[in-house]
Write a structure and sequence with these properties.
The chain contains eight helices and six strands. By secondary structure, the protein is an alpha/beta fold. A four-stranded parallel beta sheet has the order 3-2-5-6. A two-stranded antiparallel sheet has the order 1-4. The termini are far apart.
């Protein structure tokens, strides 16, 4: 049984008994035995362990984990300390530099964001080494769509950062009369110049949180 150590334990308890998740679990058991899968089994649900539903103020939605050695550790866009910063995250840092003047740090570990209420959720939580999207349609999307719906049901507003076509499809799950959606192209080098750069989403998120009387996110990542 998965243990999150926060309110997700009770909220998601019935999800793990559903037929789709039982099939997903069997699939993952086979995949981890047969291939190199990222992240490690203990980090599959790291995003939900770091950020409870109650504390979630911002959802930053990614696609699937990084598929290179030592990169993925269960948080969307984040990599383990000591690993080269991936291009999409580097572009996020460049946007932060434009918005706030922060210098680009020497690491890509975004755990400090998670601890402030930013849920760094991928739509698929596992991947085969060297094979992006290899676990798409295995059942993860059903699970993560449910996470989005559960956040949408919160009484307190949440800021949803939807970057790229895949993430933007999830807007249909979100009640925009109660929550806030900020959409932009993906920060990937292939699309960042078409509207991600200059989107101002980090500052806009904090402006929304300030209006709501919530503590703003300190987006600066320090050198390690």
């Amino acid at each position: 049984m998965v243990q999150f150590g926060n309110d997700w334990d009770e909220i998601l308890r019935e999800e793990f008994d559903k037929e789709y998740y039982k099939k997903l679990r069997e699939f993952l058991i086979s995949e981890y035995k047969t291939y190199t899968i990222y992240p490690g089994m203990n980090n599959i649900f790291a995003a939900l362990k770091y950020t409870s539903r109650r504390d979630c103020k911002v959802l930053l939605l990614g696609q699937d984990p990084y598929h290179g050695p030592n990169q993925a550790h269960g948080l969307a866009f984040s990599v383990n300390a000591g690993v080269r910063i991936p291009p999409s995250l580097l572009n996020m840092y460049k946007e932060l530099q434009t918005e706030y003047g922060y210098k680009i740090p020497n690491n890509g570990c975004l755990i400090p964001w998670s601890r402030q209420g930013v849920l760094l959720l991928n739509t698929s939580l596992t991947v085969r080494q060297g094979q992006p999207n290899s676990h798409a349609n295995a059942g993860w999307e059903i699970f993560t769509d449910q996470i989005i719906r559960l956040l949408n049901e919160k009484d307190e507003p949440v800021v949803f950062l939807l970057w790229g076509a895949n993430a933007r499809k999830k807007r249909d799950f979100i009640d925009q009369s109660r929550h806030f959606i900020l959409e932009a192209p993906h920060p990937s080098p292939m699309s960042a110049h078409y509207g991600f750069f200059g989107c101002g989403h980090f500052r806009k998120t904090n402006e929304i949180l300030r209006r709501l009387g919530k503590e703003e996110i300190h987006w600066e990542i320090k050198d390690l």
